Amino acid sequence: MLFDFIANLSIFFIILLFAGLCPTAVASDLDHFPDVTFKVFSDFINGNFSSKISLATVLTVLFTLTSNSELLNLHARQQNPQNPTEINQVVTGWMNALSRALKEQLNKDSKRLFRQSERQHYETDERVINAIGIKLDALSKLLSLNPFQNGQLQQKLKPVDDSAIQPVHVICPQSMECETEFCAGHSLNQHTRERDIPRVTLIKGLKSFKNVHVLSGKCSKCNTIYYADHESSVQSQGSRKRTKFYLNSAKLLKVGQSIWVDQIFSGAVVNAVYSFHASTSAFSEFWSNSFSTAISRRQVHHTFVQETIRNVAQASNTGLELLDGLPIDEVTKHAFNQLGENGIIRSAENHFCSECTHDYKPTADRITGDDPAALVGVDENQNVPALNGPDADLATRDAAQARLDAENAMAVDQNSTLTTAAPVKLIVMDGIVMGPTVGHIF
Question: For the whole model, what pTM was predicted?
């Protein structure tokens, strides 16, 4: 029985491993983006929509069709009856539902889906929806988003691969001109030489982009170098040391040699640590198993440090300036010296509530005669053997003395009518770290 349980448990973990490591979608599960010439597409738009239709509306219509392959399968199947009892429908209920959703999305711009001469024929909402459905049906066939040909099923439509239309991302400085007082808005030159332009991975939200170019700018007047997440300037004239000024408004952060992340990702790291008490290793494992781009524990740690530093500096309306090139541990140490305000938590200043503010209590409410070797939550209500060792008698004597002092202090407190101690606003306890107490049955 034990062997069978271990074998089943091993199989279970192997399944979990493959479920986490295998990508959820592969290239064979996707269809290519519609391969239609711009002229053919443009002629259709000019012939069926208003001449005043905006580019945004046209793209909304296009991506509405490419993003709903399952609905187009249902629509096409109903248009191509395979059984004697089925009826061929030009505009099905499926296409009408898509038309209604598109009309609600476009709102007032939906009238641009009709030419001026057509609008007078569509007075009711039902006719408008039906007319939009006819146009969407025609456009889907133009884009070859139709699984049937001559009434015969060719291949069921798959989700459309949009990698062919992904934008090109370039990481560059936010400032469009030099912001030092001496330069008075001098323009910035592209500083990175073509052969030295880094190609990195950029994580934006849940998507990652490969081979993203990273550029920097330089003021030819003061030699300040501008990056996407910081600025670098010479400490003094003739010195080779540079000062790094962290930007509180940075939208992207460099968290590794070839990894940049946006605020959505860095915010998710911080929220996971605070909300779920996730370690950097746990978040790294979660991300690497869930998405195509693997990220290391050190990169998660860099992300957490930089994002929290940015948040603290932004909240205190100050900027962090450090020596350029410091390792991340030194950055944390110097950041605390500059932003820590000697351990004062400004966000908790003038805050009082029943959970964090209590009257000062010099002793515990309950003092027991338990053995000093006992550990809370570890002994499982069992008798603890007496403490042994060279200093066992000292530990026992110290515990007895502490118990006597506490009892005397309680007696004094009960007889005293004066309260001289200030309320306690925060208590930090260093105790035992325990895992979840929920059991798992296999």
Answer: 0.69
